[in-house]
């Protein structure tokens, strides 16, 4: 691999032991994937933040890096942690877990990383532009930035993202290259998509078929950023989709040659089947939404439904701290809290120690949450639209 003088210097230890270790990791990764050079990245999003995911070995690894003076050189945000950093006590998160989680966050902060723990950094202050090379980790954020924004990132692991943040570069392979951004499957959507969960159900189905392919959707009319974050999250969970295109909507859709692609047609019945497949329980003890982290529009929508009513079961709305702050300023957070719901920042239903909370079955509107909660959190799942879930909780 061709390295610049500066990169050679990092690799040979001229820039300290931490950069040497991190550069070695990036060079090895580049060799595995046949990269010919490193490219600068303008931002990084690091996964592997929750103590639930990385446990003591991860905590020690990060503390060691921080103690050895590791510092990031580009704007770097975090994936969700395992607790709400400010309200974990009142929300009932286990103290032992929280103490470990806080240590992890302290190590990241010592490295100069913004402790904005969210899978929607693009809604919380880290918004790349079209064509920008970045190194992001969380699968739904990767999908959104590649597909909806047209930035370029591979699906980084926690260590490779951290190495990119510390060295400011990443190996030039995979989705950084034009030739790897072309569609592999044509998805003809012959079904109306009426809610965020309909997009999630579509993603749940297509991800399981195309695996790590790059679907090109035709037949989708309109759609909001919330819809597309749900679609991408579900496809990244049921498959490993890191880039998709939507005809007439996403920025690289017009560059695709779709003639000759394998065609998959999605009907109303397919969507219904996807909801059934994602659902593993027949009752809901608690509703947990915000996967990916809820936007202001989604929080306002929930507030509009519950306003002036009382919920008959727990409702958690997971979001980023930045969005929560705005939701508080607008008064919509207060409306949800008055109805008995909770807004939870910095964490989510999958990476929080949800198994320690007493609900058996959880209602979700997300294909990704539906995919992961039974395994990671030992909870049954009912997948429905947020409107349906709330309607039942207000009866
Ligand atoms: Fe985000 Fe957690 Fe879902 S990281 S995409 S809210 S599983």
Draw up the topology in text.
Elements: H1 5-11, H2 17-32, E1 38-40, E2 44-46, H3 51-67, E3 76-78, H4 88-91, H5 95-110, E4 114-117, E5 135-136, H6 139-149, H7 158-167, E6 169-171, E7 185-190, H8 196-210, E8 215-218, H9 225-238, E9 245-246, E10 262-267, H10 268-278, E11 286-294, H11 296-306, E12 315-319, H12 321-330, H13 332-338, E13 342-345, E14 361-364, H14 367-377, E15 380-383, H15 386-393
Parallel strand pairs: 2-3, 2-5, 3-4, 7-8, 7-10, 8-9, 11-12, 11-14, 12-13, 14-15
Antiparallel strand pairs: 1-6
Helix pairs in contact: 1-2, 2-7, 3-5, 6-9, 8-9, 8-10, 9-14, 11-13
Structural class: alpha/beta
**Share of residues in strands:** 15-25%
Give the overall silhouette.
globular
Distance between the termini: 63 Å
Write up what this structure looks like.
The protein has 395 residues and is α/β, with parallel strands linked by helices. 43% of the residues lie in helices and 16% in strands. Helix 3 runs parallel beside helix 5 (95-110). The protein is globular. 52% of the residues are buried. The site of FE3-S4 cluster (F3S) has 15 residues, from strand 11 and helix 14.
Outline:
Helix content is 43%, strand content 16%. The protein is of the alpha/beta class and 395 residues long.
Summary tags:
single chain; 395 residues; alpha/beta; four-stranded parallel beta sheet; 15 strands; binds FE3-S4 cluster
């Amino acid at each position: 691999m061709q390295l610049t003088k500066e990169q050679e210097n990092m690799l040979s230890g001229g820039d300290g032991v931490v950069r040497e270790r991190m550069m070695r990791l990036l060079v090895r990764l580049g060799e595995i994937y046949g990269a010919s050079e490193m490219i600068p990245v303008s931002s990084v999003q690091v996964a592997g933040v929750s103590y639930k995911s990385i446990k003591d070995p991860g905590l020690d690894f990060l503390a060691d890096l921080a103690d050895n003076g590791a510092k990031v050189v580009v704007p770097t945000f975090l994936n969700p942690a395992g607790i709400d950093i400010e309200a974990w006590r009142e929300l009932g998160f286990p103290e032992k877990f929280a103490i470990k989680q806080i240590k992890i966050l302290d190590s990241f902060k010592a490295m100069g990383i913004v402790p904005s723990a969210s899978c929607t950094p693009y809604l919380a202050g880290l918004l790349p532009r079209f064509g920008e090379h970045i190194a992001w980790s969380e699968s739904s954020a990767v999908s959104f930035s590649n597909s909806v924004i047209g930035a370029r990132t591979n699906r980084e692991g926690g260590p490779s993202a951290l190495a990119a943040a510390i060295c400011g570069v990443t190996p030039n392979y995979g989705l950084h290259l034009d030739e790897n951004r072309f569609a592999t499957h044509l998805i003809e959507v012959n079904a109306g998509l009426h809610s965020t969960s309909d997009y999630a159900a579509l993603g749940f189905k297509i991800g399981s078929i195309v695996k790590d392919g790059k679907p090109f959707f035709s037949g989708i009319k309109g759609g909001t950023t919330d819809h597309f974050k749900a679609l991408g999250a579900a496809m990244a969970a049921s498959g490993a989709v890191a880039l998709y295109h939507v005809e007439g909507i996403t920025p690289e859709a017009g560059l695709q040659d779709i003639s000759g692609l394998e065609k998959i047609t999605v009907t109303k019945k397919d969507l219904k089947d996807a909801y059934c497949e994602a659902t593993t329980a027949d009752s809901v003890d608690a509703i947990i939404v915000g996967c990916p982290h809820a936007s202001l529009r989604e929080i306002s929508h929930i507030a509009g439904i519950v306003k002036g009513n009382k919920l008959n079961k727990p409702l958690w709305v997971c979001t980023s701290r930045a969005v929560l702050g705005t939701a508080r300023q607008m008064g919509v957070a207060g409306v949800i809290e008055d109805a008995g719901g909770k807004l939870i920042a910095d964490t989510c239903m999958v990476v929080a120690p949800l198994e320690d909370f007493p609900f058996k079955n959880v209602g979700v509107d997300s294909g990704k949450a539906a995919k992961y909660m039974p395994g990671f959190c030992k909870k049954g799942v009912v997948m429905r639209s947020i409107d349906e879930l709330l309607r039942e909780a207000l009866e």
